[in-house]
Specification:
single chain; 5-stranded mixed beta sheet
């Protein structure tokens, strides 16, 4: 760690000619005010709009033979660069400059505000089912800021963002003592330390606000909502509250979601889509969020199948998995898939850099080497136990997304 609080992780990997530079900021949509949402996503765009000494971020990294991008979610904002290892310093120079200070230019803010608002309209307002997560988040979270999706509650919040708002958010969160810098690839640790000290040591630390997020109380009854819109077909969404990413039950819940719907042999896909043909599409996944999140089941019923019938079919399968132990073969298959995914992820230098940063943020970088062990220890009894605990009706939010008829759509 540097004196200014920047956490640094270096991973040597001489199997590749490339180097990855990843900067993970401990800020996401959950850190926004309810009346000023979408700011973390706005900053994902603003951070490419020029910084104190660099008017254009993209050109130098491209000239160095590299590429870069970023993503934001409820928990974090992540910026990453991949380039030939001999050009590593270019990425460090670029990342340090925008950590030092953005180019607080009104024209840049106006442009990026417009880009984000247009993205909101395109993906949430004009795209079929685009507002699903606005409904699901609002239904599932009454007090926790997971109540709104990363893109924000309404475009108005970003439209109304002032330069003062932007500066305040930047200096609260985009500081070295609120970030993890990871360098992975064909590098030498001592050389990288020297470069990081050169480019980051003089950046002043910030006064990071203490995170005091409200704890979501247990859900006590089924939440139901019907949304009608001009979409191609009906869709069904069921969400269930599940524990946070570091909870011991996370691994069993993740494997449970895979048993339900991950691949052609998974239960919901095989029984409800292939055999009974109740659905034309179906999926199940966990949010994997740092704070307690959701297990989500979503599907689109086949023509002639009502949403009520589709829901009954899903609940029948959930009831089976609660009361009938899964087979050893079923559990081993999903464990093998997880192992393959983890091993593949670790073989990619950029994924390695991202994973190291995320686990450091979770509190222990060594967790990246323990994931496989945690999954391997999950038992058949664990799967049945978490299914009984979390897949209950009173823990569920149910969204019927109904396609309006031709006449209704024209009205």
């Amino acid at each position: 760690m540097l004196d200014n609080g920047l956490v640094v992780i270096i991973h040597e990997d001489d199997s590749t000619p490339m180097a990855a530079v990843n900067v993970l900021y401990n800020v996401g949509a959950r850190d926004e005010s309810p009346d000023k949402t979408g700011f973390a996503h706005l900053f994902e765009h603003l951070m490419f709009g020029g910084s104190a000494n660099i008017p254009d971020f993209d050109e130098p990294i491209q000239n160095a033979g590299g590429e870069n991008n970023a993503f934001t979610n409820n928990d974090v904002t992540n910026f990453y660069n991949l380039l030939p290892a001999e050009n590593l310093e270019t990425a460090l120079w670029l990342e340090s400059d925008r950590m030092l200070c953005l180019n607080f230019d009104q024209e840049v803010l106006d442009v990026q505000r417009k880009v984000v608002v247009e993205e909101f309209k395109e993906t949430c307002l004009n795209q079929p089912y685009g507002d699903v997560w606005h409904h699901l988040s609002e239904m599932a979270f009454k007090v926790h800021p997971y109540n709104w999706p990363t893109i924000g509650k309404v475009p108005q919040h970003v439209e109304d963002a002032t330069m003062e708002d932007v500066k305040d958010f930047f200096y609260k969160y985009y500081r070295p003592n609120n970030a993890v810098l990871t360098v992975a690839g064909n590098v030498k640790t001592e050389e990288v330390k020297t470069l990081i000290t050169k480019w980051f040591a003089d950046i002043p630390a910030g006064q990071i606000p203490e995170r005091k997020l409200p704890i979501e109380p247990p859900q006590e009854r089924l939440e139901k909502r019907i949304q009608e819109a001009s979409v191609p077909v009906n869709a069904l969404y069921l969400t269930y509250h599940v524990p946070e990413r570091l909870h011991p039950d996370y691994y069993a819940i993740d494997l449970l979601s895979d048993i339900l719907c991950n691949g052609n042999s998974s239960r919901l896909y095989r029984r409800l889509l292939k055999e009974q043909q109740i659905f034309t599409a179906i999926d199940c996944y966990v949010s994997g969020s740092i704070d307690p999140g959701l297990l989500v089941i979503e599907g689109r019923p086949s023509e002639g199948v009502s949403l009520e019938e589709a829901e009954i079919a899903i609940r029948t399968e959930l009831d089976k998995i609660m009361h009938e132990p899964v087979s050893t073969r079923e559990l081993e298959k999903v464990k093998n898939k997880v192992e393959s995914t983890l091993l593949f992820s670790e073989s990619n230098v950029l994924n390695k850099a991202m994973n190291l940063a995320f686990y450091e943020l979770l509190g222990d970088v060594e967790l990246t080497n323990q994931e496989l062990e945690h999954y391997s220890k999950v038992t058949i009894e664990d799967i049945q136990r978490v299914a009984r605990t979390f897949l209950t009706e009173e823990n569920c939010c149910e969204l019927y997304y109904k396609a309006t008829t031709g006449e209704e759509a024209e009205a």
